[in-house]
């Protein structure tokens, strides 16, 4: 009787290891996102779980661990043979997990890869607003002038300027050689992005770095025009004063 119960339990466990839900998510993926599950991860893999299986959006167990910021789980998966994929690096950057980002890079993750949406890890890091993650990528050779491979054709700097509170990240990118006046397909600049979200500290960082205040977008609007249009009057006043200096 005892042997039968053990046999049934083992059979159920093996079935569990190989199971997928309707989105292609495996038990290993779910466990990898939970802190402190290294031993469970090892057990699942040793029992037959596919360590490199992908769900319907292309994420693996390593992706789940990376996005959750679980450094121990990430290391365990790598030690057990997980493939270092660019999706995992992008997700670690989006989560702002600098330690996981550094770990993935040390195992060969490509800092200048483009994901299926056309963005680089650095673009995701600027979106996270985590300066330490941004610096890890820059110090590892990330291209600060990369342009997204999608309809936006957005620069890393423009992407950083589209999130409030990113002034220190903007400064770090500029100090590392980011081009301040890159024009998007709509002739929009990073300064115009900063004006739209209303972050005067980002605006000041760009202006102090030589942003061209006279550039017009395809609608014939300058950064000052946009500040007035979107009722960003503190920014409009600042830009007007900077223009009058010249």
Automatic annotation (TrEMBL):
Any one Gene Ontology BP term: regulation of gene expression
InterPro entries listed in its UniProt record: Ankyrin_rpt (IPR002110), Ankyrin_rpt-contain_sf (IPR036770)
ANK repeat ranges, renumbered to this chain: 23-56, 57-89, 84-116, 117-149, 186-218
Domain of life of the native organism: Bacteria
Gene3D superfamilies: Ankyrin repeat-containing domain (1.25.40.20)
Entry keywords, A to Z: ANK repeat, Repeat
Lineage, top ranks: Bacteria, Pseudomonadati, Pseudomonadota, Gammaproteobacteria, Thiotrichales
Keyword Repeat: yes
Name this protein carries in UniProt: Uncharacterized protein
Pfam families: Ank_2 (PF12796)
The organism of origin for this protein: Francisella uliginis
